[in-house]
């Protein structure tokens, strides 16, 4: 690693913290077998030399954001977080959340039977408030279903971040329609993509192919990296070291990794 690269912080843009006594959502798709505390996460970051992180609201707990926000406040010099909220949330509460280190909202739309109509007056006001706070909206949706919600979100003018390579459709990888929808959205200037949770894809080769396509068409300035710690439902199959190694495998160019892993997220969330 060059001296120049050492000076650029590596930012983990996707991780979760929770405890097993937190109230699970009625639709939770996984029941964590053990705590994943902020202390454990900070120790993991330190072990791997990761200096900053942007935690992602865990869909398992719906809008129970308290632990994530409290953890961020405690480590605000190096952490930011997102939250899951209802569109009817009080704008004053949103401002307090911003002051506590919240930088965006998460739309957990994967495996949801029907998506909300975000063209309603309530949603239009909500997304305007998101814009006013300079937050981003990060969306978790299956690749084959990404096109319509991306188009709808673009019309609101918010900054968009797509989770987990855009969840490319099995058997199609980089040729998935969702990948093309992401590329089109990025070209419009307000969308970024996380190269996160490579272990959730069919194979590391698929992750590499998707990363290569996204790098080619979007450039490293529109990509972010995330571990997805503590690897919900894969707790005994993935490690943090695996995720760092996968990032290097998917993005072999050191200068591109420096942009994706440091410069871009620092501009988006910390500077």
Question: Could you explain how this protein is built, in words?
Answer:
With 271 residues, this protein is of the alpha/beta class. The chain has one domain (11-270): Metal-dependent hydrolases (TIM Barrel), CATH 3.20.20. The protein contains ten helices and eight strands. An eight-stranded parallel beta sheet has the order 1-2-3-4-5-6-7-8, with helices on both faces. Mean pLDDT is 93; it is low at 1-5.
List keywords for this structure.
271 residues, alpha/beta, TIM Barrel, 14% strand, disordered N terminus
**Overall form:** globular
User: Uncertain spans, ≥5 residues at pLDDT below 50?
Assistant: 1-5
CATH homologous group name? Metal-dependent hydrolases
Which value, in Å, is the CA radius of gyration?
17 Å
Biggest sheet record: 8 strands, parallel
How many angstroms separate the termini? 24 Å
Q: What is the strand content?
A: 5-15%
Name the average pLDDT. Answer: 93
Q: Quick one: CATH class?
A: Alpha Beta
Series of H and E elements = HEHEHEHEHEHEHEHEHH
CATH-derived topology: TIM Barrel
The total number of structural domains is: 1
Strand order of the largest sheet: 1-2-3-4-5-6-7-8
> Architecture, according to CATH?
Alpha-Beta Barrel
Residues in helices, as a percent range: 25-40%
**How many helical stretches?**
10
The beta-strand count equals 8
What structural class should be given to the helix and strand makeup?
Answer: alpha/beta
């Amino acid at each position: 690693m060059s001296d120049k690269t050492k000076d650029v912080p590596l930012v983990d843009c996707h991780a979760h913290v929770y405890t097993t006594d937190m109230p699970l959502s009625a639709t939770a798709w996984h029941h964590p077998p053990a705590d994943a505390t902020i202390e454990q996460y900070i120790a993991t970051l330190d072990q791997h030399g990761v200096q900053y992180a942007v935690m992602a609201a865990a869909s398992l707990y719906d809008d129970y954001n308290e632990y994530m926000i409290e953890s961020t406040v405690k480590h605000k010099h190096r952490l930011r977080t997102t939250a899951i909220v209802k569109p009817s949330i009080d704008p004053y509460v949103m401002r307090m959340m911003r002051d506590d280190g919240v930088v965006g909202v998460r739309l957990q739309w994967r495996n949801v039977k029907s998506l909300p109509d975000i063209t309603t007056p309530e949603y239009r006001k909500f997304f305007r408030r998101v814009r006013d706070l300079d937050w981003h909206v990060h969306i978790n949706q299956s690749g084959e279903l990404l096109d319509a919600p991306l188009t709808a979100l673009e019309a609101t003018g918010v900054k968009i971040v797509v989770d987990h390579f855009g969840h490319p459709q099995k058997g199609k990888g980089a040729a998935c329609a969702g990948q093309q929808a992401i590329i089109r959205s990025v070209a419009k200037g307000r969308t970024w993509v996380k190269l996160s949770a490579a272990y959730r894809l069919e194979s590391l080769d698929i992750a590499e192919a998707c990363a290569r396509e996204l790098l080619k068409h979007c450039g490293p300035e529109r990509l972010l990296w995330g571990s997805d710690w503590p690897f919900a439902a894969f707790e005994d199959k993935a490690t943090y070291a695996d995720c760092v190694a996968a990032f290097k495998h998917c993005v072999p160019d050191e200068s591109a990794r420096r942009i994706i892993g440091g410069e871009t997220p620092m501009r988006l969330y910390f500077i």
